[in-house]
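Hi F.,

I've been meaning to write this up properly since the lab meeting, where we talked about keeping a consistent format for the predictions we share between groups. The idea is simple: the sequence comes first, exactly as it goes in, then the structure tokens exactly as they come out, then a line or two of notes. No screenshots and no reformatting. I'm using this chain as the first example so we have something concrete to point to.
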Amino acid sequence: MILVTGGAGFIGSNFVLDWLAGAGEPVVNLDKLTYAGNLGSLASLARDARHVFVRGDIGDAELVAALLREHRPRAIVNFAAESHVDRSIHGPAAFIETNVVATFNLLDATRAWWSALPEAERAAFRFLHVSTDEVYGSLAPDAAGFCETTPYAPNSPYSASKAASDHLVRAYRHTYGLPTLTTNCSNNYGPRQFPEKLIPLMIVNALAGRPLPVYGDGRNVRDWLYVGDHCAALRAVLAGGRPGETYNIGGNAEMTNLDVVRELTTVLADERPGRDYAALVTFVADRPGHDRRYAIDATKIRGELGWTPAETFASGLIRTVRWYLANGEWLASVATKEYQKWIDLQYAAA
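Output, unedited:
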């Protein structure tokens, strides 16, 4: 079996669902259930004995140690993190606590347990740490994409905290021999994403006839990766990645934020006609320290593990919109008054 941390969040829940639908290998899912964790995303597994959910914190070393002793996972896949740049600007302390301190506690509990395993189990074990391309900083318009040797230059409290966690993972490999793997991915989108991120926020607002807030001039560029493709890449890294190595995962789909929103309004017009969604686009004050461009060079994972994204941005966006349109109950469950208060605060018109 494997232990997945943060498996009720956006990427984590998609990974768990895809994993059980494919490999069928049992999963212990450890999640703190903060605002972005949602057991509703895993409702289809409610009676599935292969999925064991444990509510808890990766920073709770005693809990982690007990789970490792009881279940003896052959791998840990670590999704658990605070992950929204805007929230890190308003409240960085939670990002340091989860992404740095709690990740250290998880690593140290894992190291203590792993070091006492029989030699064959130690050699077979993997610790897969899921990170972000934001640790590399901002790219010039004509610069080559981030590769695995690009120097770290994080520019937000979020990306700095993730950079710190990446360094801890590297240190535990170099110092203790823990068989770690690290992945740095580009912007994910797809089903079950909490609607504070760009694409689901725009879908929620568009369906309600509210403004579609775009930061600054809307020309910040991101590489967009469909979550199902990301999950497939993680499975490939877990199966064949070399311990101690980093693999960058990208969707080969660079777009400005404004172009993303415009394409989304076109898809919505086809899928849910009756409103001029494009007229709802509204420019708002830019985010402090907003990185201008991210891009991924995924040559390494393609060459070593044979992974390439199956979805184009257009095909992935249609799948995403259709999922949200078909899952209004899920959306209603996360669009609480507290959520709306946060959105109103964050996107005050310039």
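Notes:
Residues 5 and 30 are 5 Å apart (CA to CA).
Residues 2-193+226-251+293-316 form a domain with the Rossmann fold fold (CATH 3.40.50.720).

If this format works for you, I'll send the rest the same way.

G.
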